[in-house]
Specification:
alpha/beta
Length: about 260
């Protein structure tokens, strides 16, 4: 147990009976939830963690072999759940973590009560006229090349696009988070994320799911939210007033309200 707790920098706070598990997105860590967790601490037990390779996780536990697909990250989630002997979890995943949580719930539906997806996408790449994910393959290649050649430049390019908020301090916070990551691991995580395709698994998901789709999100277009809602049989779609890809940072009150309404 201690190994997993240290490896994933697991923190447990709050005083409720039911468990909220927060899972951060690419280029981030558990600190990204700091604006919304205080609203839940009185009513829920809250589990926070960092994926291996992110935040204050044990970087020495990272291997390209384990984390070259989502399965490595799914295993991290299941390891944390089993170490803490959790059940009936409400899993709140941002961005890439939405699919990680869904895959974990398909593997062990008995562990999960509800899934809450913040800015989710099952597939970031466009596929002809059949599917609009928001990116062409050339966009992703450029992004990955930029990460390799000029990591700081990549961070300062992507942060304002993804945050899409007039407050420069929020953009700076995101940029700092991006830049603090190990460049090699971050690039591998980006590749796994942006080239992934989890559309086939959507039909296997049975846990009640809230899809929180931001308006004007440069990473996940609105079409993706509608696509997920059509293919996730037990889902609720909420279109947010929040712009950008990080509503839990830029619009914490709206984020908290929608989560509470679903719960």
């Amino acid at each position: 147990m201690d190994d997993v707790m240290i490896r994933n920098n697991v923190k447990v706070i709050g005083e409720g009976e039911r468990t909220l598990m927060f899972a951060h997105g690419f280029g981030c860590d558990q600190n990204m939830w700091q604006y919304i967790t205080p609203s839940f601490e009185k009513s829920y037990r809250i589990v926070l963690f960092d994926y291996v390779g992110s935040g204050n996780s044990d970087l020495s536990a990272y291997t390209s072999e384990k984390y070259r697909t989502f399965q490595g990250y799914v295993q991290d989630v299941l390891d944390v759940i089993e170490s803490l002997k959790l059940s009936g979890i409400i899993f709140i995943g941002h961005s890439v973590s939405s699919m990680v949580g869904m895959l974990a719930s398909i593997a062990r539906p008995d562990y999960f009560d509800k899934l809450i997806m913040v800015g989710p996408s099952p597939r970031y790449l466009n596929e002809g006229d059949n599917y609009f994910g928001g990116f062409d393959r050339s966009d992703i290649t450029e992004l990955l090349d930029m990460m390799e050649m000029n990591f700081a430049g990549w961070a300062s390019f992507l942060a304002p696009l993804a945050m899409n908020h007039p407050d420069p301090s929020l953009t700076k916070q995101l940029e700092r988070s991006f830049i603090s990551a190990d460049p090699v691991i971050a690039r591998e995580f980006a590749e796994v994320t942006f080239l992934s395709d989890h559309r086939k698994e959507l039909s296997k998901s049975t846990v009640p799911t809230l899809i929180m789709q931001c308006s004007d999100d440069s990473i996940v277009p609105i079409e993706v939210g509608h696509y997920l809602h059509r293919h996730l049989k037990n889902s609720t779609l909420r279109l947010m007033e929040a712009k950008g890809h990080y509503p839990h940072i830029s619009h914490p009150q709206e984020t908290v309200r929608l989560i509470n309404e679903f719960l």
